[in-house]
Amino acid sequence: YKLFWNGQKTAKNGVVIFVREPLAQEVLDIKRINSRLMGIKLRIEKQTMIIFSAYAPQTGESEEMKIDFWTAFSDTISTIPKSETILIGVDLNGHVG
């Protein structure tokens, strides 16, 4: 496996994507947007796939931080052509109940 990582040295936040070694050779691009959001572009046969890893701000974080995260997430997703497949692995820090 090959690890693609983006985060801070403070051990706060951070996102990661693991790719099995034969597929790691097919990574076309890496986008490290911020310590909570990153993506890789991967070629699988004749298809292009964008894989995102995201970590939403948890309860207790500022409203500004939450808005910044969702704005960056939305802006990034909206730039992807419809011909490319998107896969999102995300921790949305949601609450149930």
Automatic annotation (TrEMBL):
Record's Gene3D superfamilies?
Answer: Endonuclease/exonuclease/phosphatase (3.60.10.10)
Top-level taxon: Eukaryota
Q: What is this protein called?
A: Endonuclease/exonuclease/phosphatase domain-containing protein
